[in-house]
């Protein structure tokens, strides 16, 4: 198995794997390649084509990342987490360098991304003021915005405009794209306490970034093989439910009578009802690490032998609670002088 790049900690685990009746799989980096590429930038007016708007959104988004830039054989490329790599590389493509932007807008503080909040925020010095930049899940970030930036002007974010933005978000998600929203605000005085309540409120919504993450080769065929063997395959992801549903249908995970559900909907279901109906669900979207553990436990409580696969630190609790946990991929985040933070768990 080692020759097949599979390392086993405990040999009896192989027997458990062979007995699995349910496979719960994280999407990004497991079912998909985790090789993101920016393909769409949109505002409420549809796809953004104005060069000035495109540049402004990417400038903000690239500064609100922990990705760093390296020179490889004379070419500048981003390193770090896949989503952030896609943003920084797209900015580089149009001539915008995050390192150069940091010279003009020094980064002085941040609130790191976490899978529960689904947002990341950075703080930058802007002359005598400070610029707060936040990126994250559109449905979460939009609720933190009171204004809308477009074509150099800031106007009130009405319910009608919010509806249009949500429509654009769904259009991108239905095309199986991962979507991030970007917002900002300028303030005169930096709060003494750097937290979500002091920074991630009353923002100016700027735009949506749609990224494609192609499926891994052989995944669709593997799902078919599992189904023929009587093994239920389940997708668990932090992505929007429309994105998750589109990809799950393409891979053959979500069939006609299967159900997709969000973490928010899951919170409203009792453990008893979840266990009773768990086999009806094939897609769980917008979930937290805690949700993943609950899902795995619900499948196990039906008597199923559950395998959990994932490639990120957020998958660790679920991997531990499954009958067998399978850590996937070779993701790494190398330390660099240009790194804002070194995360040994990445």
Explain this structure.
The chain is of the alpha/beta class and 346 residues long. The chain is built from 14 helices and 17 strands. It has helices spanning 12-18, 27-31, 51-63, 82-93, 98-104, 138-141, 159-174, 196-199, 219-228, 241-251, 263-267, 271-277, 289-300, 316-321, and strands at 22-26, 37-43, 46-47, 68-72, 75-79, 107-111, 119-126, 129-136, 145-150, 153-156, 178-187, 203-212, 232-236, 259-262, 281-285, 306-310, 324-327. The strands form three sheets. Strands 2, 3, 6, 7, 8, 9, 10, 11 and 12 form a nine-stranded mixed sheet that branches. The protein has a six-stranded parallel sheet with strand order 14-15-13-1-16-17, sandwiched between helices. A hairpin with a 2-residue loop joins strand 2 and strand 3 (46-47). It is globular. The model is unreliable at 331-346 (pLDDT under 50).
Topology:
Blueprint: H1 12-18, E1 22-26, H2 27-31, E2 37-43, E3 46-47, H3 51-63, E4 68-72, E5 75-79, H4 82-93, H5 98-104, E6 107-111, E7 119-126, E8 129-136, H6 138-141, E9 145-150, E10 153-156, H7 159-174, E11 178-187, H8 196-199, E12 203-212, H9 219-228, E13 232-236, H10 241-251, E14 259-262, H11 263-267, H12 271-277, E15 281-285, H13 289-300, E16 306-310, H14 316-321, E17 324-327
Parallel strand pairs: 1-13, 1-16, 9-12, 13-15, 14-15, 16-17
Antiparallel strand pairs: 2-3, 2-12, 4-5, 6-7, 7-8, 8-11, 9-10, 11-12
Helix pairs in contact: 3-4, 7-10
How big is the Rg?
A: 21 Å
Q: If helices are DSSP runs of H or I spanning 4 or more residues, what is the number of helices? A: 14
Largest sheet: 9 strands, mixed
| Share of helical residues | 25-40%
Structural class: alpha/beta
State which percent range the strand residues make up. 25-35%
Low-confidence stretches: 331-346
Total E-strand runs: 17
Q: What is the overall shape?
A: globular
């Amino acid at each position: 198995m080692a020759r097949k790049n599979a390392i086993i900690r405990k040999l009896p685990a192989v027997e458990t794997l062979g007995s699995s009746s349910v496979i719960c799989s994280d999407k990004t980096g497991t079912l998909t390649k985790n090789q993101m590429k920016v393909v769409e930038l949109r505002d409420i007016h549809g796809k953004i084509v104005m060069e000035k708007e495109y540049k402004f959104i990417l400038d903000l988004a690239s500064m609100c990342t922990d990705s760093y830039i390296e020179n490889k054989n004379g070419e500048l490329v981003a390193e770090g987490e896949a989503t952030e790599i896609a943003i920084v590389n797209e900015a580089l493509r149009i001539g915008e360098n995050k390192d150069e932007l940091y010279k003009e807008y020094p980064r002085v503080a941040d609130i790191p991304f976490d899978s529960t909040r689904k947002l990341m925020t950075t703080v930058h010095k802007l002359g005598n003021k400070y610029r707060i930049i936040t990126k994250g899940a559109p449905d979460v970030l939009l609720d933190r915005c009171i204004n809308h930036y477009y074509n150099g002007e800031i106007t009130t974010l009405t319910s009608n405009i919010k509806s249009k933005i949500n429509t654009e978000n769904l259009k991108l998600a239905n095309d199986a794209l991962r979507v991030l929203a970007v917002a900002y605000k300028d303030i005169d005085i930096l709060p003494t306490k750097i937290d979500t309540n002091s920074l991630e409120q009353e923002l100016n919504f700027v735009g949506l970034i749609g990224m494609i993450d192609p499926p891994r080769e052989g995944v669709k065929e593997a799902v078919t093989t599992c189904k023929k063997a009587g093994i239920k395959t389940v997708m668990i992801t932090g992505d929007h439910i429309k994105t998750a549903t589109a990809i799950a249908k393409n891979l053959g995970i979500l069939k006609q009578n299967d159900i997709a559900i969000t973490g928010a909907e899951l919170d409203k279901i009792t453990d008893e009802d979840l266990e009773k109906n768990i086999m009806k669900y094939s897609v769980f979207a917008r979930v937290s690490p805690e949700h993943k553990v609950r899902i795995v436990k619900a499948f196990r409580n039906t008597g199923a032998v559950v395998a959990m696969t994932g490639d990120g630190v957020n998958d660790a609790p679920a991997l531990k609670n499954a009958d067998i946990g399978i850590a996937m991929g070779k993701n790494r985040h190398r330390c660099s002088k240009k790194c804002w933070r070194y995360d040994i768990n990445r």
